[in-house]
Amino acid sequence: MRSHDSTKRILVTGGAGFLGSHLIERLLGQGHEVVCADNLFTGTKRNIAHLLGNPHFEFLRHDVTFPLYIEVDEIWNLACPASPVHYSHDPVQTTKTSVHGAINLLGLAKRLDCRIFQASTSEVYGDPSVHPQREEYWGNVNPIGPRSCYDEGKRCAETLFFDYHRQHGLDIKVARIFNTYGPRMHPNDGRVVSNFIVQALRGENITIYGEGQQTRSFCYVDDLIEGFIRLMATDKDFTGPVNLGNPAEMTIRELAEAVIALTNSGSKLVFKPLPQDDPMQRQPDITLAKSKLGGWEPQVKLEDGLRRTIAYFDGLLSA
Ligand code: NAD
Ligand code: UDP
Ligand code: UDP
Question: Which residues form the NAD(P)-binding domain (predicted)?
Answer without folding.
Answer: 11-309
